[in-house]
């Protein structure tokens, strides 16, 4: 069953009666004054082969139920006020041969799922607000012959996978922000300048387009060399910093060892003196008597105002100067106290 009501004054929303015809194969309501949104019930037309709603005033999003039309071969929604995102469910319409969503207000990126439509021959997404990069998945449909993505805000490079699109005969990527070389395929090499004009920086063999000469390659090589030079400089600075750090650590370690050695020597001297003070007085006195043989004159060293100095070898490694103080016979407990304290301090 086919229903074609085009180039008429049909207005208002899409009549619900049209979406109840389960056996409908072709529905053409193009070039009317239809408004409103595409009804979700459209997904129930499981036998639909062709749907043309172009040149109307339909608005809103394309319902995701459109992906239920598995037998759909031709979908034309061009020249409407459709907005939002291109539904990823279109990738489920495996039988699509032509898809025209041009002259609408679709935004954001081209969905990768369109690459799932393996038998797609015509794809027209021109005159929208599409942005970001062109997905390389668009090159998957090997039968794609016509590709029009002009008058959008697409940026970046044209994917290299486009070089495998041997069936492609017509392309239009004009009025975008694309850059880089054109794919080396017949459709791009033989494209008119109008099909690639007004982009950011495309280059190739098309007349009117700048050549992808060696200057750009040289710039890339210089970029690579600059990066290598920067890496070498950073490595050298890192090595220099590491070397300086090691030298500083060695110097600090050497100084710390000298300080520790000096402190150990001082501590050892202090310990010797402390050991002397910690001796038992009677035992130490007995050793002095023994070492001097009872203060024998042969150990005599000198004599001062308050006593005689003797040399006493307590051991093989310890030699002391022993001073034997003299005390007064009269009131010695008081008179000799001051001189004794001075001798102790000395």
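Q: What amino acid sequence fits the structure above?
A:
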């Amino acid at each position: 069953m086919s229903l074609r009501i085009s180039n008429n004054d049909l207005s208002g929303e899409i009549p619900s009666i049209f979406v109840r015809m389960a056996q409908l194969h072709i529905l053409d309501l193009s070039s009317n004054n239809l408004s409103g949104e595409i009804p979700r019930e459209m997904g129930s037309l499981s036998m639909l082969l062709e749907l043309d709603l172009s040149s109307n005033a339909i608005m809103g999003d394309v319902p995701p139920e459109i992906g239920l039309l598995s037998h759909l071969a031709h979908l034309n929604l061009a020249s409407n006020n459709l907005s939002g995102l291109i539904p990823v469910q279109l990738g489920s319409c495996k039988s699509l041969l032509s898809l025209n969503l041009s002259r609408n207000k679709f935004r954001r990126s081209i969905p990768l799922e369109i690459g799932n439509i393996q038998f797609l021959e015509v794809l027209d997404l021109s005159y929208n607000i599409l942005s970001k990069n062109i997905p390389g998945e668009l090159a998957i449909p090997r039968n794609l012959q016509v590709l029009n993505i002009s008058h959008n805000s697409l940026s970046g490079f044209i994917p290299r996978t486009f070089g495998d699109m041997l069936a492609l005969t017509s392309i239009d990527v004009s009025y975008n922000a694309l850059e880089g070389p054109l794919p080396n395929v017949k459709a791009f090499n033989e494209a008119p300048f109008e099909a690639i004009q007004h982009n950011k920086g495309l280059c190739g063999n098309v007349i009117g387009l700048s050549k992808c000469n060696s200057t750009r390659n040289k710039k890339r090589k210089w970029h690579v060399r600059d990066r290598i030079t920067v890496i070498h400089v950073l490595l050298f600075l890192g090595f220099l910093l590491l070397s300086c750090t090691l030298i500083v650590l060695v110097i600090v370690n050497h100084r710390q060892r000298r300080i520790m050695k000096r402190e150990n020597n001082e501590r050892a001297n202090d310990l010797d003196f402390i050991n002397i003070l910690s001796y038992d007085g009677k035992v130490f006195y007995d050793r002095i008597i023994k070492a001097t043989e009872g203060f024998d004159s042969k150990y005599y060293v000198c004599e001062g105002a308050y006593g005689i100095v003797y040399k006493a070898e307590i051991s093989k490694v310890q030699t002391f100067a022993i001073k034997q103080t003299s005390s007064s016979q009269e009131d010695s407990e008081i008179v000799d106290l001051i001189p004794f304290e001075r001798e102790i301090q000395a």
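Q: And what stands out in the fold?
A: The mean pLDDT is 83.
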